[in-house]
Structure formats: structure tokens, C-alpha cells
Amino acid sequence: MNKLLNPQDPTPTDPQPLEPQPAEPHLKMEIDALYTILSNLYGPDRLVLKASKVEALGYLRSQNIQERAAGLQKIVNDDPTEVALPLLEHVPELIHKIEEILAERVARKNIEDRLNQAIAEKMQKRQDQYYLDMRSQLLKESAGPESAQTLKKLARLEKMEQHKLLSPAVQVLRPHTPEEIIGQDTGMRALLARLATPFPQHILLYGPPGIGKTSVARVALETVKKMSNSPFQQDAPFIEVDGTTLRWDPRDVSNPLLGSVHDPIYQGAKRDLAETGIPEPKLGLVSDAHTGILFIDEIGEMDMILLNKLLKVLEDKRVYFESSYYEPHDTNIPLYIKKIFDEGVPADFILIGATTREPHELPLALRSRCAEVFFVPLEPSHIEKIVRQAAQKLDVHIEEGVAELVADYVMEGRKANNVLLDAYGLARFERSEETLQEEGSHLNKNKIVVTVEHVREALRSARLTPYIHKNQQEDQIGRILGLGVAGFMGSVLEIEAQVYPLPGGIGQVRFNETAGSMARDAVFNATSVIRRITGQDMRVFDIHINVVGGGRIDGPSAGLATTMAIYSALQNVPLRADVAVTGEISIQGRVKGVGGIPEKLFGAKQAGSRTVIIPRENEPEVPVTLKGLEVVPVETIEEALAVALRSGDNRGCSKCI
Fold first, then answer.
1. How far is CA 520 from CA 478, 527, 537, 540, in A?
2. What CA–CA distance (Å, rounded) separates 616 from 400?
3. Is 556 left (phi over 0), alpha (psi -120 to 50) or beta?
4. Which of 221, 470, 617, 649 has the fewest C-beta atoms lying within 10 Å of its C-beta?
């Protein structure tokens, strides 16, 4: 094809780079349109690569009309040599020539596409017809088992194989690198440390659902494969199964996890084996996971007998099969079956089990064989990052405030992605059919914008409510926030107390019946402690303690909070609304250690608390990564009151100053 301009034409003598020249708006629009046509013709990536090869990348990104026109010339001509920058008045002529060339190329491409499509359709029809003819001929010759009905079902299956949906959302949004794992840096590091050694360990992952335990395990294996001296080969498998769905027969008729034996009479071994009375072994998932990882989600839900059988495989690193039909001296037994029965099948893998249960709910035999890694709940900032990362993978824009809104309603990464996908679907649905037809097959998904209203509609459709209500109350008398744990998630309990004097009478203590016996015992401990530090006889008061919402308290950890609430009501002094409390109280006024400190601190932070009072014994359990929360360890009730009471409000407690 002829050059648009002769490379031998004289070039401008001015060595200075051209400044952007004022030009007719239609020139800029025409040049932009030509670049768009080139992008559609070659594809954006190939266009940039082509521009780089012909040294026109700078012209491509220039704002100068002449340079952009010269860039078009170099790309169309596929000419890396230096060309003369056209004069501004010659640009329209150059554009006209380029338009003619591109029109010819686009027309040729369209014709080629249509021809290729027609050829492919013809070839497919010929192939299908040939396939049917050959099958019919073979059936006639061999008189096989095929019939019209079986052939129809086969054709249906083959047709199903040819048509598939787009990539499922779970594959698009699934993390593939450690950098894409959000909010679980500590868990990811701990997992890699236990896998990237010559002696990898079996691992148990604890944490609430939807925070990425499965994704972390999968990414960890792929990461370890790339390390030098890795114990895992590049083809190491990752076998994933849900513990709640593992079903087996105690007679070993079926066992998808460990494998089973199909006896020739009852279980239906292959015909050639059944005719000679030979049992057929069926390998299980533990054999598929050999040299790799077997990931069992919800491992705490597995049948105990099956779990014990799995532990035996972990010890032996082999699976053994038995059958009353196996005769070692039968010469008709294939060698591979004889080897399986005589030596077993290798099953040397690393077990990673994930669970939402508490550690004490799992068998000690399993825990003793595994390292334990605890995953933390996701914070709102993590949910926001997950939403933004998902938006990038979906190639859509999200309106300001979308990520924050999703974080107010969900605390699971999987659920956050689902909400965004619902809102994305609504945004796509709102686009008119005319707009979609105009864009054609080159649909620019960047034009799709997910708004706050789309998210609100998705939340209403799913009937979701805000996950945590922020504590925005003012300081109150007789009210304080206690902390609890439920399934690896910290919770905030609003505890309130009222004290009514009964001069000369005998008061009573009232408490929620649903709160639990240990919580009621903590109330009686609290009255003894308050009597000691104030000197007042608590028998002349009616005391009413209430856990707002009727929450149940299974342990003694609300003792300190209950004591402080009663003290505040008795002394008529307010407690700080931004303080949350956990700890057991003894009748001597000492604050004893409790469990679930990391989860409780997380719950307090979610509720908007700024300060958390914990027992001194639990100070080593405070996460080193904790930010935005002041943690105050105390040993006595006096120290706790000194923190929770505003300055000057320590009346009636000289030890609290």
C-alpha cells in the first residue's frame, strides 16, 4: 500500500517540540474517531503494541493535532521511520486519505469474518453429519447397545458441552495472589510459614464464615509452589470438599473420602471383573490429594468415625483396602488391583481443615495433629477494600459511598461481593436495549456505574439490616457496654441498672431470667463488692439489672460491667459512653481473666468504643495489629472505675481516685 506521505519530504526545521495548536473541533473529533476505529480493528492492547513498534506511542498520547495525525500515519503505514509532521492546513487531507485506507481494511475484515463464520458453520454441519453417518455405520456393523433414544441423549449432552455461560462470578472475584487477600495478613503469613518448609504441617483454620479461609488456603498453595526448595511440586493438587456433605457407609460400600471396594456381586464391579469374581477398588479424595493439599471445609461437622479413619491415613500416609472376595493367589487378578490390596495406595498429603466452631468443640485427636491458625473477623475498612477490588475485577465504576454502605450491612467478604453483584445486575438491567444495541459486541463495561441507590435496592431486596449499630449515646448513669463472643464474632451487650432505696425495708435484686445462671451469680458478687468499696448496706435497696435486647451471657465475663453499672446507679454518677468492659469480678473486687479477648476487642471497635477495659491477665492476648482502640488492663474494680468515670465523679469510692 502506498505511503500517505513521502518520507523524503522535507521536515520542519524548527527543532522545538510543537505546542498544542488551536484547531477546528471537528479535526480533533475526526482524529479521535479514527483512533477508536483502529482500537476496534486491532484491539486496545495490540494498538498500543503496534504504536510502540513504529515509535508512535508519544504521538498517540499527544494533545497536538499534528502529532496525533502523524501518529495515525505511522500506525496505518506500519512505518517506524521518522515522518514529517503535516502542516495544520494539510491535516484534513491526511485524515481523508487515512479514512479511505481504514474503510478498505474494515470492509475487508468484515467480509473475512462473515466468510470465516460461514465456513465454520458449513464445516460443523459436515462434521456432525459425518459423525452421525459413521456412528450409524458402526452400529449396523457391531450391533452395539446404542439405540435411537441413547443417541438422542448423547446428542443432547454434546450440545450442552458446546454452550456455556460466561465465567461464574465466584471465579472472577476469587483472589489469586496474596496481595488480593484482604484483612487476613496475619493468617496468610501463619499459613505460609507452616507450608513453606521441608516439613509442612497439617493445619486447622478457625474463623467466622465468609472471611476467606478457603481462598487463603488455595492462594497459599500456589504461592508456596513458586518458592525455591518448596515441598510441593508445580502439579501439586488442591482437593476441596465440604465436611458437611461427606457421607459414607460403615460397610465401606461407598466412601468418597477414603475410597471403597466394589465387590463383584453386590456392589457391581466392572463386568469383566465381576464375571471372574474380582473386587474392584475405587480410590477416594485422599488418593487424589497425594503430594498436595486436601482442604476440608467445615471439618467440625464430619462424622467422628470417618474423621478417625482419616487420622489413621494421616499417620500411615497410605490407604488400605480389604475385601472378602480378594484372593491373593488368583492368577486372574490384574496387577494393579493386587498391588492395591497388598500394599495400599499412597496418600501423602497435607490436611487443611476449616471450621466455624470453637476449638474445644473439635476432637483432641485432630487438634493434636494439626497446627492451629485463627482468622480474625473483617473490619469495615476491609469490606470497603473488598468491594473496591471486586469493582475493579468487574470493570465497573462505583459511586462514592457505595463501599461504605456495603460495609455497614455485611461483615463477610463473600456477602459483600454478592451485594455488589446484585447492585451491578440492577445497573445493567436499567440500561436500555437501544443503548446495548448501539454498543454492539464491544460493550464498554466501564460505562456501567453502580450507585448508592442500586446498593440500597439490593440491600432491601435481600432484607439486610445494618450489622452493627454504632454507639452514639451520651454518658449515662447506670449504663455501660459489656462484651461477649459468639462464633468468633465479638458482640456488645448494653447493661443498665437502677437502684431504689427502701429505708427500713428489705430490697430485692431483679435480673433477666434469660441471661443465664452465671450472669445472675455475677450480680450477687457485684453487690458484695460495692458494699465493700462504698460501705453501704445493699439490703435496703431494690436493684434492677437489665441486659438490653435480652442477650444470654454464658460466662462470668459480664461481672465487671454489672458491678460498674450498679455502682454508677447507686452513686448517681455517669459512666463514659465510649468505654466497653469485660472481665470477671471476685467478691474481693479483683478483676479475673476471661476468654475471647481478640474477638471482644474487635466487637468493641465495631460498635464505636474508644476505650476497652480488660483484665490484667489478658494483656498478652491483645493483638499487636490493633489500631484505633485504647486498651486499659486493670486488676481491681477501683482501677476500672477510675477509667470509666469522668474526672471528679469518683464519689463514695476513695480508692478509685
1. 17, 11, 19, 19
2. 43
3. alpha
4. 470
Angle at which helix 44-53 crosses helix 25-42, to 10 degrees, equals 100
CA pair distance 581, 643, nearest whole angstrom? 10
Q: Is the pTM of this model over 0.70?
A: no
User: Left if phi > 0, otherwise alpha if psi is -120 to 50, otherwise beta: which for 40?
Assistant: alpha
Cell 504521538 belongs to which residue? 59
Q: Give me the residue label for grid cell 479413619.
A: 309
Q: How confident is the model at residue 633, as a pLDDT?
A: 94
Quote the cell numbers at residue 308: 478417625
Among 34, 36, 83, 74, smallest CA distance to 54 is for: 74
List the Cα angle 548/534/604 in 5-degree steps: 35
Distance CA 357, CA 487 (A): 7
Whether the CB-CB separation of 452 and 399 falls below 8 Å is answered with yes
Of 562, 612, 202, give the one whose Cα is nearest residue 371.
202
Catalytic residues: 557, 600
Amino acid at 70: A
SS3 state of residue 328: coil
Q: What one-character-per-residue DSSP string does 215-248 give?
A: HHHHHHHHHHHTSTT-SS-TT--EEEEEGGG---
Q: What is the pLDDT of residues 272-286, one digit of tens each?
A: 565 667 788 889 999
pLDDT higher for 591 or 172? 591
Helix, strand, coil share (%) of the chain residues, nearest 5: 50, 15, 35
CA distance 133 to 130: 5
In 3D space, the residue among 315, 309, 318 whose CA is nearest the CA of residue 339 turns out to be 318
What tens digit of pLDDT does each residue of 87-104 get? 777 778 777 787 788 788
CA angle at residue 548 from 547 to 554, to 5 degrees? 40
Helix axis angle for 65-77 and 91-142, nearest 10°, is 40
- Angle, helices 637-644 vs 517-534, to 10°: value is 90
Alpha-carbon distance 585 to 547, whole Å? 17
Q: What is the DSSP string of 395-459?
A: T-EE-TTHHHHHHHH---HHHHHHHHHHHHHHHHHHS-HHHHHHHTTS--GGG-EE-HHHHHHHH
Q: What is the per-residue DSSP string for 547-608?
A: ETT-----SGGGHHHHHHHHHHHHHT-EE-TTEEE--EE-TTSBEEP-S-HHHHHHHHHHTT
Q: Judge residue 106's burial from the number of C-beta atoms within 10 Å of its C-beta, 0-12 exposed, 13-18 middle, 19 or more buried.
A: middle
DSSP type of residue 324: T
Q: Which of 100, 99, 96, 91 has the alpha carbon at shortest distance from 24? A: 91
CB 643 within 8 A of CB 591: no
Q: Indicate if the pLDDT at residue 11 is higher than 90.
A: no
CA atoms of 564 and 584, how far apart (whole Å): 12
Rounded to whole angstroms, the maximal C-alpha distance in the chain is 116
Separation of alpha carbons 415 and 423, rounded Å: 12
Instruction: Give mean pLDDT, residues 586-609.
Output: 85
- Phi, psi dihedrals of residue 465, rounded to the nearest 5°: -120, 160
